[in-house]
Amino acid sequence: MSDIIRKLQQLNESDEYPLHMPGHKRSVGCGFFDDVYSIDITEIIGYDNLYEADGMLKDAMERAARVYGAEETFFLVNGSTVGILSAITGVAKRGERILVARNCHKAVFHAIELRDLQAVYLHPEYLPDWDIAGGIEPQEVEAKLLQYPDIKAIVITSPTYEGIVSDVEAIAKIAHAHNISLIVDEAHGAHLPFDTRFPKSALVGDADIVIQSMHKTLPSFTQTALIHMKKGYADTARIKEYIGYYQTSSPSYLFMAGMDECIATLEKEGSHLWDAFFEMRDDFLKKMAILQNIRILQDNDPCKLVISVKGTSMSGVELQKIFLEKHHIQLEMAAETYVLGIITMCDTKEGFDRLAEALLEIEGSIAKLAQDVSNRGQNSDFRDDLNSLSEWRTCEEDIVYSLAEVREKDTEEILIDEADRRICADYVNLYPPGIPLLLPGERITREHIALINRYLEKDMHVQGVSERRILVCR
Ligand SMILES: Cc1ncc(COP(=O)(O)O)c(C=O)c1O
Question: What interhelical angle do 79-91 and 236-246 show, nearest 10?
Fold first, then answer.
């Protein structure tokens, strides 16, 4: 038996509870998937062909489009990543300008690099009570489009990892008034169209391209995702062509059958499954109303559990550790002042009860700090103590090279403490969530260095910084 199988079996036999993706929570019992090898094929005669679908895969994708309320839907078997790469390379030609929310997933920046695009950034508002990014303001979108009339498309993430949605409808209206398309990375929102208790999907908001990871919040295999496309402002034929470039030429029928099965089940039985989910969640939140030190964000996507310890003696990373080591609950992510759990229709009452018990116990072991830390640094001459990466605003003067230009430069590795004013040559981000703090081609500032040092001190995983060294242009 391989080490990987052994480790997975141990996980399966353990009492560890998953508050993370995939949305099926390793619990969906479906007879067809009991022996995965017996139905694991790729394209053979009589079973249709994803890239030229005219049989059962065409029917399944048409069903997905109908259920989701999309004009056209295509199955992705390499995650939302491949949908993002295809959509961006499909809407803008080499060297063109694109308007991008700075809190996008790294796949967005990889597409910009591959296509050698010029990026103009939108910064979401910062929510200081929670240290997270809020929505993208439509007025900022309008202002940037007036400032740069040659922008060819807009890309935003909604909902965010933490479940914050933007006013997609307003942003789509602005995009269309300027004759350009809006791409929404809705990787975290594949469940949104299924119930009115969820925030509105970008599909309702008239976005042109909407990309969703089914595996994050729905009972669907890891890597399964959808791209919904609307003709008009975006060249959908070109986007589909690029999907064939980026995605495997051997799509897994396990994945595609799983997606179809999930969508069919939600269409037929979704309403009572969501009712059961909301009942468990409401019950859990009622029990949590007595918390004084720990706070749970409530006006975000109900599938996201943002648990904040901001202003207390505990950090998010410490909270994650206690959850795992003491309560055997594995979370999706830990940030500096909060942790994030994903809850779905496949969670159980037992799971919610364990979570409630853990939180009540942890609540008793932490203290509120006397001082409100949310205002620190406001009077200093530079922001050496940003509350979080979400607060960071990139100055346009600090973007020295485009993402593609940096690849042509000679580089060297230096100590992060010696990197002030140097030009970064790598992606630097916390992982998860993979939202860049620094992009290749950007000038490194003292604020970046202070924030990265703080993250490292707190044992957070900073990609792009290894043994305190960072890659810079020579
Ligand atoms: C906002 C966002 N977009 C895209 C992705 C990529 O999705 P996938 O893992 O399905 O490729 C992620 C992954 O976490 C994400 O958080």
Answer: 130
Name which of 291, 396, 314 is nearest 305 in CA terms: 291
* Average per-residue pLDDT for the chain: 94
* pLDDT confidence of residue 391: 74
For the beta sheet containing 338-342, the strands, ordered from the edge strand earlier in sequence to the opposite edge, are 295-296, 304-308, 338-342, 333-334
Q: What are residue 17's DSSP bridge partners?
A: 329
Model confidence pLDDT, tens digit, residues 19-73: 999 999 998 665 667 788 999 999 999 999 999 999 999 999 999 999 999 999 9
Ligand 1 mean position, distance from CA 86 (Å): 14
Atom 1 (ligand 1) nearest CA: 105
Name the stretches of the chain with pLDDT < 70.
Answer: 28-32, 371-387, 389
Q: What is the pLDDT of residue 387?
A: 66
Q: Which atom of ligand 1 is nearest to the CA of 78?
A: 11
The rounded distance, in Å, linking the Cα atoms of 332 and 316 is 12
So what's the pLDDT on residue 375?
A: 43
Among residues 215, 169, 223, 155, the alpha carbon closest in space to that of 189 is found at 215
Place of tokens 């560890």: 16
What is the bridge-based pairing of β-strands 329-331 and 17-19? parallel
* Atom number of ligand 1 nearest to Cα 223: 10
Give the residue, out of 85, 161, 213, 243, with the most ligand 1 atoms within 8 A of its beta carbon, to mutate for a pocket test.
Answer: 213
Closest ligand 1 atom number to CA of residue 83? 11
pLDDT in tens, 332-353: 999 999 999 999 999 999 999 9
Does the C-beta of 301 come closer than 6 Å to ligand 1? no
Report whether 99 contacts 153 (CB < 8 A).
yes
**pLDDT number for residue 214:** 98
Distance CA 260, CA 420 (A): 51
Ligand 1 center to residue 369 CA distance, Å? 35
Contact 217, 226 (CB under 8 A): no
